[in-house]
UniProtKB/TrEMBL annotation:
Organism, as annotated: Arabidopsis lyrata subsp. lyrata
Region annotation Disordered: where it falls in the sequence: 150-176
InterPro entries assigned to the protein according to its UniProt record, in alphabetical order: NT-C2, Nup186/Nup192/Nup205
Name listed for the protein in its UniProt record: Predicted protein
Cellular-component GO terms for this entry: nuclear pore
Annotated Polar residues bias: 162-175
Pfam families xref list: NT-C2
Ranges where the C2 NT-type domain occurs: 7-153
Amino acid sequence: MVLGLRTKSRRDNGVFVEYLISIKELKPWPTSQVPAQCVLLKWENGENNSGSFIAVVGKDTIMFNESFRLTLTLEPKVGSDNKFHKNLLELHVYDAKKKDKGVKNKLLGTASVNLADFGVLTNSVPVGAPFTFKKSSRNDASSEIYLTVEPAGEEDYDEGNRSSGSSQPKMSFSRRSVEGSEFSLASLTDDDDDASSVSSSTRRVSFSAMCDANSTVRIFILVT
């Protein structure tokens, strides 16, 4: 799923860019981290951009295979149009196993990627971001989160959303807490944009997910 505007321009002294970021996998996943069975990966860029998704822990790898669209402004360093000030994409991985109400889900580790290193991209760039466990064994091998960063092209934009008369749902991410056992993943709004219509209706579809004791990821849908 992707979201955002198809825009790339200069704003004041900054360079406005749009990336399609695909989170592939985290490996190796050491046995010292067991009994984590399901994890929540939460990504953050600044104060207003964030999202999350849940994955099941494999034998030694966590496969995510999730993508999101990210728009941001890169600030050039003084005297250079091609070098930018640090702009971090932070990746936090939590134990997503169902907890008692009021009990926080445990942070397992973090990784970060400096998006300023990429600037204005013309092709896909593979990245291996070192992953730091909050608690680890001396014998654990070094782990990385593997992802790709590429320019968000027109083919990544929902065909229905590009049509001015479209009634296709619009996907948007919202900030969420990692406290508790359920995590709101995204919301959908279905707006009637027909100008000739006397009234318009909006349906909001909220998704949440949790991982139960059997490592099953359950998706809950609420239509309002």
